[in-house]
Amino acid sequence: MRQNSELQITRPEERELETKRSELAALESSLAEREVELASLRAELASFERKYLAEVGLRYAELDELKAQVAEKAAAEQPGDPRLQEAARRARARAKATRSTAGPGRAHAQQVYAPTPEIKRLYREVARRIHPDLTTDDADRRKRQDLMAQANHAYMAGNQAALTRVFEAYECSPENVRGDGAGADLVRTIRRISQVKARLEEIDAEMKSLLACDAKRLRNQFDTAAGSGRDLFSDLANRIDAEIAAARANLSEQLQCAHT
User: Fold this and answer.
1) Phi/psi-derived region of residue 66, left when phi > 0, alpha when psi is between -120 and 50, beta in every other case
2) CA nearest 211: which of 224, 198, 200, 220?
3) Which residues, 6+ apart, have CB-to-CB distance to 208 below 8 Å?
4) For residue range 98-137, what is the model confidence (pLDDT) as tens digits?
5) Interior/surface letters 62-78, b for 16+ CB within 10 angstroms, e for the rest
6) What pLDDT does residue 7 have?
7) pLDDT tens digits, 173-200
């Protein structure tokens, strides 16, 4: 007798689901690697900027402040000389700019942010759809709380694109797809693929921006010098220290002349 073999029928959505799952797995693997690359680049630049600020930036701020005092003292002694007055104004502006760079927190605190009507409208829509108080499900509430925190940060920064991404992250979330079976799983997988691709695009854009920023170019110069056996940090610090000493001596001489 012939044994009846069970006929296996694979529906189109099941075949498509397997294809999309394979695509998602490859994308998530790539995303993990790119996230590490981005985090490493951020850490490298942050470490370099801290070192530069400590060894060079603060010295420049001190030097420019001394130069401003010297220029202002000279302008005060000859108030009728327009060139000295202009030189004093430029020196003070430079000292202020350098001080702001050396202390970004103080400069940022002085900024006043006024949200645009479009950002206000978008933020209200986000709050209306995503606010944690609108759900009784604990898992959904935790997700909404995290998204609202991101929305608040984007709103305060005036970042409309980031605010839009928060809204889309919830509205197009795979978790929002209800139902069981291959069809629902396929939609959830497609949405997750879209999320991963969007994140990869964000990473590529940020990496491109970081690789082209002033800090990265400066870091490359220091690395090139180090490869030749030179320590640019030490070289710059010594040169600026010498200029600071000269500026202090100049200011001291001006003060002594003023009292004679």
Assistant:
1) alpha
2) 220
3) none
4) 887 765 444 443 444 567 888 888 888 888 887 777 677 7
5) bbbbbbbbbbbbbbeee
6) 55
7) 776 667 787 888 888 888 888 878 888 8
Maximum Cα–Cα distance across the chain: 126
CA angle 147, 116, 166 (to 5 degrees): 15
Task: Measure the CA–CA gap between 196 and 35, rounded to whole angstroms.
Answer: 11
Amino acid at 155: Y
Quick one: tokens of 256? 């002594």
Q: If we measure between CA atoms, which residue out of 194, 174, 193 comes closest to residue 185?
A: 174
| Residues 19, 252: Cα–Cα separation, whole Å | 77
Structure tokens of 120? 């206000």
Q: Which of 140, 170, 165 is nearest to 153 (CA)?
A: 165
Residue for token digits 């709103």?
155
Rounded to the nearest integer, the mean pLDDT of the chain is 82
Tens of pLDDT, residues 49-90: 888 888 888 888 888 888 888 888 888 888 888 898 898 899
